[in-house]
Amino acid sequence: MMVLQPPAAGSLPVVLAITGASGILYAVRLLRALLAAGRDVHLTISPSGAAVTKQELGIDVSLRQFDPAPLLNHQPVWAARSRQDLGAAELARLHYHHYQDFMTPIASGSFLTAGMVICPCSGSTLAGIAHASSSNLVQRAAEVHLKERRKLVVVPRETPLSTLALENMHRLSLAGGIVLPAMPGWYHGVQSLDDLVDFIVARILDQLGIDNRLISRWGEDQLSGEQTEMGGRSAEEPT
User: Fold this and answer.
1) Which CATH number covers residue 121?
2) pTM score
3) Between the CA of residue 155 and those of 19, 23, 150, 182, what are the distances in Å?
4) Tens of pLDDT along 154-169?
5) Could you identify which of 42, 80, 90, 93 might form a hypothetical disulfide with 192, taking C-beta atoms 3.0 to 4.6 angstroms apart as the criterion?
């Protein structure tokens, strides 16, 4: 009997859902980073996610006839770094699913993934997942990742947080989800808004185990200096 080996974790696709919370630019940057890292991405967008995309980026998203180009090519007016166009091979790794399509692969636990990210994650989406009452593909795919014990990362941005929202986050965390609020740090040499966006995206990629160099890590300079100092010593020098 032929035994099939499961695919390596580093080759599995990532599910990305965009819902109706502020912070769509985090999702756009994450999507580009995932494709650039060679990952297949299965994308789904809620109607509220499309509405917020129009509000924040000025991009009309058709959920029936989705065109990824406006999202992937979006360049904020304040961006300090220019965006490089993605190649045909990278774009071919993007797979879109309508939010009402429960027959799509990501609605089933038999479809293997490296994890799922909901970025940004609205309060209603969080509540639906926390109470196992899915009403669309976003919530169904999230429940699949929880039941299969796969990585689920939700990125809420709203502030302040109500007691009910905190309770939903607590429930999700107890079920195995990762709550990663869009709260960028300022300790990595921030020089532009790009750096703040990249901080959150880097932390999401870290949760998925995807190597990235989007930010300077805490203590990296010190470690680099120590290694340089050690490398400069002769064999007779005491340590």
Assistant:
1) 3.40.50.1950
2) 0.88
3) 10, 9, 16, 6
4) 999 999 999 999 999 9
5) 80
Contact in structure between 188 and 211 (CB atoms under 8 Å): no
Q: How far is CA 159 from CA 22, 77, 88, 178, in A?
A: 11, 25, 39, 18
Which residues are CB-neighbours of 63 under 8 A, at least 6 positions away?
45, 47, 50, 98, 99
- Taking only the tens place, the pLDDT of each residue in 98-146 is 999 999 999 999 999 999 999 999 999 999 999 999 999 999 999 999 9
Provide mean pLDDT across the span 68-81.
88
Task: Give me the number of domains the chain comprises.
Answer: 1
Q: Which among 186, 168, 211 is positioned nearest to 10, based on CA atoms?
A: 211
Q: Is 38 a domain residue? A: yes
- Nearest alpha-carbon partner for 154 in 8, 39, 26: 26
